Structure formats: structure tokens, C-alpha cells
Amino acid sequence: KQEVTQIPAALSVPEGENLVLNCSFTDSAIYNLQWFRQDPGKGLTSLLLIQSSQREQTSGRLNASLDKSSGRSTLYIAASQPGDSATYLCAVSRVDSSYKLIFGSGTRLLVRP
Amino acid sequence: DAGVIQSPRHEVTEMGQEVTLRCKPISGHDYLFWYRQTMMRGLELLIYFNNNVPIDDSGMPEDRFSAKMPNASFSTLKIQPSEPRDSAVYFCASSSPGTGNEQYFGPGTRLTVT
């Protein structure tokens, strides 16, 4: 059974700091991995999608990496801003059910001005 | 595109009442998903459709829950009768193979059952 873990559960950093959010999964037979952002009381916004054949994806100040063999993904946020404060969720889908996303519990990020 | 549209955004109802949540997926997306989010259990997939056909409903908690997709632009999730433990945020999402299966979420419906 696929399990997704995100560490830390919460993170508080000063503005401008570069930071890394971690996601680990127990079954390496994944189809893809997706990082989302969720603001309080809002829906999920897709940030980056990494296919199983890819090693990383970049969008602006965000970079996500994928290491299937070790069951890990990281989301790197460069030069953090207060507007980055949100909960970040990672989700994986399995090869045998590529449309079923299994979510981690998220990392709640606070960027202090 | 307006994105995934859900209604209502908030619903407060009494135990035993029927609740219907609605979703309009992104045009051209042929997969539609219903999720539930609670503090205790996080985000859980309830059911998903492909081309209006239910593919996997193994996440539907019990017979009180039902979902339909009568056409490509509309889906409903119904709870009858509702119970206080159904209180949660319900999200609808859609995707397409053309987007690499990337899922796009609606704003959610916050359901409170008293």
C-alpha cells in the first residue's frame, strides 16, 4: 500500500531564505508526482507535475526533484516571500492506477516578513 | 477557461437531510474526481469518472454516498441521509491525458452537518 509522508509538518522561516520541503513515498512504482499549494479555506493549486521518467521540474522560483529509487521528492523554494505562506501537499499516483492520487498530510509554511 | 466550478461553496444542513454537491469540470477534460478533506484523514479520493463512467468508487465511505455524471460538463455528489461525521470540505478535480494527468481542483464545498 502506497503511503506518502511529508516532513516537516510545519516550517517558519524569515523572508528571503531558500528552503526545501520533503516528500517520501513507500512504493517506487509511481506514475507521476504532483506538488500542490493550498491557501487557508481555498482549493488546491497545482505547482509542478513530475512524470516518473523525469528527474526534476522547474517553475519560476520553484524546483521539484524526484528520486524514485529512494522514494523521495523535494520542493525547493528560492528567495521565499510572505506570499509563499501556505500548505504544500505532495501526491503520487501508482503505475497500476495512474489517476488515483495519494496525498501526504502537507507542510504548513509560514514566511515571516 | 474558468477552471473547475463547484457549488455551493458552503452548505449547512441538519442531520438526516439530503445534500447535493455540484461540479463542472474544465472543458475538454475527460476525467473527474471527487475528494474529501478532513483534519483527521487529510485528502481522500472518493470516486472518479472517465468519459462520464464511474471507474473506481472504492473510496466512497458508505451507501449513503452516491455520485453521478450525466454528461461531460456536470457531476453531482449526493449524501442521503447526512450525518455530522460527513462534515468536511469536498473537492472536485478534473484532468486529461493531454495534460499528463495533472489534476486541477475546484475551490471546494465546505459542508457542515449539525
Would you write up a description of this structure?
The complex is a heterodimer of chains A (113) and B (114). Chain A contains no helices and eleven strands. Chain A has 113 residues and is an all-beta fold. The mean pLDDT of chain A is 94. In chain A, the strands form two sheets. In chain A, strands 2, 4, 5, 9, 10 and 11 form a six-stranded mixed beta sheet that branches. Chain A has a five-stranded antiparallel beta sheet with strand order 1-3-8-7-6, with no helix packed on it. Chain B is an all-beta fold. Helix content of chain B is 0%, strand content 54%. In chain B, strands 2, 4, 5, 6, 9, 10 and 11 form a seven-stranded mixed beta sheet that branches. The mean pLDDT of chain B is 94. Chain B has no helices and eleven strands. Chain B has strands at residues 5-7, 10-13, 19-24, 31-38, 42-50, 53-56, 65-71, 74-79, 88-95, 104-105, 109-113. In chain B, strand 4 (31-38) and strand 5 form a beta hairpin. The A-B interface holds A 31-32, 34, 36, 41-46, 49, 51, 89, 91, 93, 97-106 and B 4, 31, 33, 42-43, 45, 48, 50, 55-56, 91, 93, 95, 100-108, 110.
Sequence-ordered SSE layout with sheet pairings:
The complex is a heterodimer of chains A (113) and B (114).
Chain A: E1 4-7, E2 10-14, E3 19-25, E4 30-38, E5 44-51, E6 56-59, E7 62-67, E8 72-77, E9 86-94, E10 97-103, E11 107-112
Parallel strand pairs in A: 2-11
Antiparallel strand pairs in A: 1-3, 3-8, 4-5, 4-9, 6-7, 7-8, 9-10, 9-11
Chain B: E1 5-7, E2 10-13, E3 19-24, E4 31-38, E5 42-50, E6 53-56, E7 65-71, E8 74-79, E9 88-95, E10 104-105, E11 109-113
Parallel strand pairs in B: 2-11
Antiparallel strand pairs in B: 1-3, 3-8, 4-5, 4-9, 5-6, 7-8, 9-10, 9-11
